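sry for the spam today, last one i promise. struct tokens for design, 116 residues
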């Protein structure tokens, strides 16, 4: 999962199906709105098959906090990479979880079986 921030330059490291050699397009689709938010020509850098995709969303196309997004990197009609992302302003990413507080573990279970 890709973690992005609401504004500013964005950077994603991925391993695409093939390393791009020409002009690429990054399409960003909102999972909430179920529509393409924008398509942009990103900057691509390759390091032994690991590709870094860098771009800056234009004004009005910033990410919305606490929303999920789908990313697709294409070269012409060829799909190179597809990923999912989440937008947050959290800075402690190793401890960040998108489902914090959504699951409460029951402490009432004494782990015994009931035989009927």
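last one done:
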């Amino acid at each position: 999962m890709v973690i992005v921030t609401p504004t500013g330059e964005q950077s994603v490291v991925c391993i695409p199906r093939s390393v791009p050699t020409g002009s690429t397009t990054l399409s960003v689709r909102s999972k909430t709105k179920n529509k393409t938010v924008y398509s942009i020509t990103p900057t691509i850098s390759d390091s032994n098959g690991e590709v870094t995709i860098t771009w800056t969303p234009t004004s009005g196309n910033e990410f919305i906090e606490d929303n999920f997004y789908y990313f697709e990197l294409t070269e012409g009609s060829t799909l190179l990479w597809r990923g999912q992302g989440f937008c947050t302003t959290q800075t402690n990413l190793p401890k960040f979880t998108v489902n914090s507080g959504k699951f409460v573990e029951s402490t009432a279970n004494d782990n015994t079986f009931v035989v009927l």
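The mean pLDDT is 85. ok im logging off now
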